[in-house]
């Protein structure tokens, strides 16, 4: 996948180029909803790293729901123009 992006890790790059990993600011139950506007291929990885702060000092589950309409996932359609 040529363009990965991160949803829940708390990482950033310092002005000098140093990569910083800090304790996550996300918490159990946080969600992200995306609407595909065209056909796509998605690859998901739940990094099981428990040796540094990136995983909140423990490995947690990840739930992925895929639906062919927003109605099927229970999100008010008014949120998506």
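Sequence proposed for the structure above (81 residues):
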């Amino acid at each position: 996948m040529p363009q990965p992006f991160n949803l829940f890790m708390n990482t950033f790059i310092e002005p000098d180029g140093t990569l910083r990993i800090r304790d996550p600011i996300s918490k159990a139950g946080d969600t992200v909803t995306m609407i595909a506007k065209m056909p796509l291929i998605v690859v998901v990885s739940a990094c099981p790293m428990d040796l540094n702060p990136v995983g909140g000092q423990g490995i947690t589950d990840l739930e992925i729901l895929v639906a062919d309409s927003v109605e099927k996932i229970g999100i008010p359609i008014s949120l998506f123009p």
